[in-house]
TrEMBL record:
Keywords: Iron. It comes from the Bacteria. The lineage of its organism: Bacteria, Pseudomonadati, Pseudomonadota, Gammaproteobacteria, Enterobacterales. Residues 18-117 form the Core domain. This is Fe-S cluster assembly scaffold SufA. NCBIfam families: iron-sulfur cluster assembly accessory protein, PRK09504.1, sufA_proteo. It comes from Scandinavium lactucae. GO terms for molecular function: 2 iron, 2 sulfur cluster binding. One of its GO terms (biological process) is iron-sulfur cluster assembly.
Length: 124
């Protein structure tokens, strides 16, 4: 009997998507206008004590494997390879004291580090 190895292809899945709150959408639109970009890209990188960290970059030209999520004119791209880790995430923009920051409400995050900079996920 021959064993076959299956590969994981994110393109084979139906995604719930990424959502933006009205505050996050307004801030992304402001950034796009002020910086002369199309929007932002939300990705992840291996980092921190919990496993992964969110990465935000401005987008002047989307990449071929980016998925576009648009809310109220705000454009958010996500690399296809990041979707298994952040699918269903709501992006918010909040004021915390004197700081204004993006917050991520990720239903796949099983735990976060104490400083809140990284998160971990459970394999499904």
């Amino acid at each position: 009997m021959e064993l076959q190895s299956e590969t994981f292809n994110p393109a084979d899945f139906a995604w719930r998507g990424i959502s933006l709150t009205p505050a996050a959408a307004a801030h992304v639109c402001d950034l796009a206008v002020k910086q002369g970009v199309q929007g932002i890209r939300l990705g992840i990188k291996t980092s921190g004590c919990a496993g992964f960290a969110y990465v935000l970059d401005t987008v002047t030209e989307p990449k071929a494997d980016d998925l576009l999520f648009e809310v109220d004119g705000a454009k958010l791209w996500v690399p296809l390879q990041a979707m298994p880790f952040i699918d269903g995430t709501e992006v918010d923009y909040v004021r915390e004291g004197l700081n204004q920051i993006f917050k991520f409400h990720n239903p796949k995050a099983q735990h976060e580090c104490g400083c809140g900079e990284s998160f971990g996920v459970q394999a499904e």
